[in-house]
Amino acid sequence: MTTECMNLFLKEIGRVYRKEQVILFCDQASSNRAQALAIPKNIQMEPLPPYSPQLNPVEHLWDDLREKYFPNLLFDSIDRLEDHLCNALKSIQARRAYTKSLCGFSWLVNCILNAI
After folding, report:
1. pLDDT for residue 115 is more than 70
2. What stretches of the chain adopt beta strand conformation (E)?
3. Taking a C-beta distance cutoff of 8 angstroms, is the pair 102, 67 a contact?
4. Domain region containing 44
5. Does 80 share its domain with 97?
6. Residue 72 DSSP label
7. What gap in Å lies between CA 21 and CA 46, rounded to an integer?
8. Mean pLDDT throughout 2-24?
9. CA-to-CA distance for 2 and 8, rounded, in angstroms?
């Protein structure tokens, strides 16, 4: 992950959710703290404490993605890998209730509800 990639990600999240205020909890990777980040106005970044993967909701999503969509698979090209990943992410996105059950930690849900 580079600052350039993070900027692309933030730009896309800001575009897709342009009518919403987004709170983005992130680890303290250098790409998430870089001064060169261009954070859209509708995104608020909140850092998680260092060395706390148990608090990071996306870690549960990655575990599920690896377990269900990439169990011992071998791809003959990077394009096939990317296609498979895109299909997996679309499947996860379509299953909102399931994704919420993986990532909807009580502290996170309470924080969001209190912010509203």
Report:
1. no
2. 22-26, 43-47
3. no
4. 1-52
5. yes
6. S
7. 13
8. 92
9. 10
Same domain, 7 and 47: yes
Alpha-carbon span 44 to 93, nearest angstrom: 22
Are 11 and 45 in a shared domain?
yes
User: pLDDT value at position 113?
Assistant: 64
- At which residue do the structure tokens 């399931």 appear? 98
Tell whether 37 and 1 lie within a shared domain.
yes
Indicate the pLDDT class of residue 31, thresholds 50, 70 and 90. confident
Q: Is there a single domain that holds both residue 89 and residue 113?
A: yes
Q: What are phi and psi of 44, to 5 degrees?
A: -115, 120
Q: Are residues 116 and 88 in the same domain?
A: yes
* Count of C-beta atoms within a 10 Å radius of residue 6: 22
Express each pLDDT in 61-92 by its tens digit: 889 999 999 998 899 999 999 999 999 999 98
Residue 91 near residue 64 (C-beta atoms within 8 A): no
What does the block give as tokens for 45? 């970044």
Give yes or no: residues 68 and 82 share one domain. yes
- As for how many domains the chain has, the answer is 2
Residues 6+ apart with CB under 8 A from 93: 99
Threshold 0.70, pTM exceeds: no
